[in-house]
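Structure Section — protein described below
Tokens — whole-number codes for backbone shape
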Amino acid sequence: MNLRALQYFVKLADLRHFSKAAEACFVSQPTLSTQIKKLEEELGVQLVERSPKNIMLTPVGVEIAERARLVLSDVDQMKAVARRSGNPADGVLRLGLFPTLAPYFLPHVVPNLRRQYPNLRLQLAEEKSEDILRMLRQGELDAAMLALPIHDEGLEMEVLFKEPFVLALPGQHPLASQPRVGLDDLNGAELLLLEEGHCLREHALEVCALADAHERVDFHATSMETLRQMVAADVGITLMPIMAVKPPIAATKNLAIRYFDHPVPSRTIALVWRISSALSGFLKEVAQCLKSLPPDLLKP
């Protein structure tokens, strides 16, 4: 049994397709198939049900895939220990971020990270929060930037900042005539929200509950930019994190942004990593760097 065979099998378990798994592992399909067949022979069990149109794992294959992920995660930890014994700032940092944060936050911090850690190579993964958490737990990521709360005793976290929400309105909306808005102004309002799986949706629903507002049930956006354009097209109103409306993001025609009076709805962003991570000390340093934002970025 070798680690490469386990890597191939886990990738096949994820993709359920021999050709796609081989492509993802940068090997030929016969090579991948041979390694998995050898793994089955060594274990003495069938791991995969093969058919021309469908690839399924056997029940024992499902269990072995999960254990293989743990083995590979432990190997990654060994590599991380080796990096730490040298200089982790000279290695690779695999960082996960969610889509309603990544494009608005990264331009403000990546230049500073490069100055502080010129030899550090960032590998960024932009996925929904649930997928980021899964990748982090399975050792596919070293750390992640996520919105709190996160309920997992196996994770350590460093709070980075609190990001206020703003109200995005069509230019001719009655609330656009006000310099600021309050939660009371949303009483009975109908808000455009993101589809299921986005943490911003959950935060917006919490604000709706506080303001006695509700979501528009016949429309769910797939991205922040879709929300922005639908508001500009006078389809409705929505909540947006403040960084999504700050430079270098360009202004959108017919989109009015209004800031909230106290209490200001917000979300708390933290850097999160496994408690067992060999990079804990370095990640605490990185967290301090990620806190170094332009002074006016989170202010109205």
Q: What stands out?
A: Residues 4 and 69 are 12 Å apart (CA to CA). The chain is about 40% helix and 25% strand. The chain has three domains: 3-82, 87-161+268-290, 163-266.
